[in-house]
Specification:
Layout lengths: L4 E2 L8 E15 L4 H5 L8 H27 L5 E11 L5 E14 L4 H4 L3 E6 L2 E2 L6 E9 L4 E8 L6 E12 L4 E10 L7 E3 L3 E3 L3 H4 L2 E13 L2 E4 L5 E2 L4 H11 L8 E2 L3 E3 L5 E3 L12 H4 L8 H8 L4 H11 L5 H21 L3 H13 L2
Parallel strand pairs: 1-3
Antiparallel strand pairs: 2-4, 3-4, 5-7, 6-15, 7-8, 8-11, 8-12, 9-10, 9-13, 13-14, 16-17, 17-18
The protein binds zinc ion (ZN).
The site of zinc ion has 7 residues, from loops.
Length: about 375
């Protein structure tokens, strides 16, 4: 006979209940002499008799539990929950002990390492944008708890519109450079009319194993719905042209909707949101960023110097380029530039070519990132 597990509670640690059976009870009738032997009224029960009573009762209880287990052992169930015992006094001299509980089937919970490690979450910045007043996808969040993947998209809502839903294709690129596209995904929003819209999580067909190897995402908006009507988005989006490192630095410094660095040629200026504004415009037509606040305070024209650095191979040569220009560079930046060169030289001795890293750091410094 399988050992029957019994609890007065509703569950067993480390086990799950796979099936609930019937509520059952077993009754053990005590001899009609039971009370006679120890006196007929509780008032008569002196200390010594009380212990006899307890002894008798314990014996009866154990008997009841034993028969309950035997009864349960003959069924297909292997455990009992909500188990309890009761002493019942009938009229005349009959007393019985009742053991009762619900029969259940239990099995050990599956707890492999794999099961414990299934929770995956990934947040990706969106690597393309529309240069119009459409909701701008800024982030894709993928999450899985081992039972299918869910997706949520965050949109910058420049116009604070009452956007109810957005239909879009989502293109993912993985670390091998392979692409996978989810078409016609319907994002809906709990709260609308806010500057950042976070969609509800919806199920998506992406295998959860795939989430870990995704490296970037692009969003192609087809349609969106506001209280005023349905709008379609016929434009082609613009791809972000920044390294992942620089893109992240830009987002951290300039906001989730930022997609490029400020630049100006006098006639027009490009905003952090990507929109190209007339030279005379004080603030951006799309995002209202002020040109003055975006303008770089660095007066040194660094781009030709960086171009010269790119022609070199090693940090030692890049440092030579810097030294050629250093007296023209804003004094506040000189120390940091020299530090970048020194650490680059150190790393290059042990870790191989540091050219790209050093140039990226120099560029970020001039961009204020
Ligand atoms: Zn802007």
């Amino acid at each position: 006979m399988e050992d029957i597990m019994i609890t007065s509670g509703t569950s067993f640690e480390g086990y799950e209940i796979s099936e609930y059976g019937p509520y059952r009870f077993v009754q053990t009738i005590l001899s009609s002499n039971f009370l006679k032997e120890i006196g007929s009224s509780i008032a008569d029960i002196a200390t010594d008799r009380s212990s006899i009573y307890q002894e008798k009762l314990d014996g009866a209880m154990n008997e009841a539990i034993k028969s309950f287990k035997e009864m349960a052992g003959k069924t297909k169930y292997n455990a009992v929950v909500g188990f309890h015992t009761n002493v019942v006094d009938y009229s005349s001299n009959i007393t019985s002990v009742v053991a009762a509980g619900t029969l259940v089937s239990i099995k050990k919970e599956y707890q492999s390492e794999f099961e414990k490690s299934v929770f995956v979450r990934k947040e990706l910045y969106v690597n393309n944008y529309y240069d119009k007043l459409v909701p701008r996808a800024v982030k894709i969040v993928l999450a899985s708890e081992g039972k299918g993947t869910r997706i949520s998209a965050w949109f910058n809502n420049y116009n604070m519109e009452d956007i109810k839903a957005i239909k879009a294709d989502i293109k993912f690129t993985n670390i091998y450079g392979d692409e996978i596209t989810l078409t016609g995904v319907d994002f809906v929003f709990d709260k609308t009319g806010q500057s950042l819209l976070k969609s509800d999580y919806i199920e998506c067909k992406l295998p959860d194993k795939y989430i870990k190897i995704i490296s970037s995402s692009k969003v192609y908006i087809q349609k969106y719905v506001t209280s005023r009507g349905v709008y379609s988005c016929g434009d082609d989006p613009i791809d972000v042209d920044l390294s992942p490192l620089k893109f992240k630095a830009l987002k951290m410094k300039k906001g989730l909707d930022a997609v490029c660095n400020y630049k100006s040629d006098g006639l027009v200026w490009t905003c952090n949101c990507g929109h190209v504004n007339e030279g005379g415009a004080e603030e951006c037509v799309i995002c209202s960023r002020k040109q003055d606040e975006m303008k770089n305070t660095v007066s040194f024209n660094y781009e030709p110097m960086i171009e010269e650095m790119r022609q070199k191979e090693y940090v030692m040569e890049i440092k030579d380029v810097l030294m050629k220009h250093i007296k023209d560079i804003d004094s506040g930046l000189r120390m940091q530039l020299l530090e970048i060169m020194e650490s680059g030289l150190q790393y290059e001795k042990t870790r191989g070519n540091m050219k790209d890293t050093v140039i990226e750091k120099v560029e970020n410094l001039f961009l204020g990132l």
